[in-house]
CN hydrolase domain-containing protein (Ostreobium quekettii), 274 residues
Amino acid sequence: MTSTHDQEHNLGVCSQLAAQASEAGCRMLCLPECFAFMGDSSMQSPATVAQPLNGPLMSRYKQLARDNGLWLSLGGFQEAGPDADHIHNCHIIIKANGETAATYRKIHLCDVEVPGGQVWKESSFTSPGCSTTVCESPVGKLGLSVCYDLRFPQLYQELRFRGGADVLLIPSAFTKPTGSAHFELLLRSRAIECQCYVIAAAQAGQNHANRQSWGHSCVIDPWGKVLARMDDKETGIAVAEIDSKYVADIRKRMPIATHRSAGRSSLMKGGESL
């Protein structure tokens, strides 16, 4: 989707996507980072529109889940933060009955200067989270993250090898320069090294005059194969089936969890002998 500063417009688009997902027989719909709001000026700081997770805007998304009988992955909501100037970038999982299944607050904040002269300083209006999150769902055990987290493989190792995740959710709002260079490459790497499905819902197209998102939402299987994808401007859904038996088969044939444990043990022994 292509979010804007108009929360009503964005909710309308999400409602259309939910209806499409329901008609397609989906159990779960994943929405990108900033699905509810994308400011188009420095005066529209996310902190100015932030709400608590029990506030009126989130209640409408919970109703959207109930109306369509869908689980929702709400990939980056502007949650009211610790003070008036800072939010939490919060990934929320909503059950089909409208109840909250899990929340995760983005740990790695995007403070970077990208090629082309754009400067992003997420920490100027966002406070980081401090813990990882996994939860059960109809499509498997979910490992939650948000966008810039993608560049830190240790987070996904934690979700997979400690948390037991089968599906890694990576809702994103990559810019065109970084997305064209790194987005799919990093997504496929996380899928392969963790032997998990990866679902990456992404912002796409021209959000406002100074912001073009990369798009290319996709679903990737544990072998690194792209099962479904969107383009760089399209609004809509990409549908894929999550096969838990396939996850188990991949992990059985290439037992990297066992090899990882053995390798860590050998390294510790080696360290003790030095």
User: Anything to note?
Assistant: The domain at 7-242 is CATH 3.60.110.10 (Nitrilase/N-carbamoyl-D-aminoacid amidohydrolase).
